[in-house]
Amino acid sequence: MIDSKALVIFSGGQDSTTCLGWAKNRYREVVAISFYYGQKHQIELEQAKKIASALSVPLELVDIHFYQQMVYSALTGDPMAMNAPHRDNAALPASFVPNRNALFILLAHSYAQQVKAHTMVAGLCQTDYSGYPDCREPFAKSLILALNQGSDQQIELLTPLMYLTKAETFALAEQEGVLPLVLAESHTCYQGSSTPNPWGRGCGLCPACLLRAKGYQEYLSTLERSTHG
Ligand SMILES: [Zn+2]
Description:
The chain is an alpha/beta fold. The protein contains seven helices and seven strands.
């Protein structure tokens, strides 16, 4: 157990729920921060509260919905555009929110100073989300370096899922003891559907649900292979 405090950037989704379990098993004290930025899938935040409370983690919920005024994303705009390219950058998916992760990390870095956390944990992952440039490691590393330099801090940013596939993230959740919470409570669906499925809650049709369902299938077949051979 590491004798310090960790702040988890927590959305209530599969990845950050896994990170919350990971941090709980490693740090003496864990706190979490969630952001409301006008996402259609607000249910994510209701689930975030439930999950944080189930893991006895204090959760700070921050309203930054003004951000919708500045950027376009299908996550805050037209959900029917979800499977199309981004309106303002055709190379990116419609669900991309420009600078969202930069904003989350910036705000979490400010909050970390207030609560005296020297470690931040984020569920950024560049394996499956290659469509989101702000999930990649060089971005995360350079941003935390800039923030530390700009505020004379030494806060580290850990990204335990960075090179895991979705199937490996399911396996990590199992290892950290949070797989039942991931399946029953975590929420990633872009449409805000809370329909229960074997792989968790969601519509089963949006890109986030498709990725999650596919990852769960892969996770199950890996389990089967290791049981039978
Ligand atoms: Zn969905």
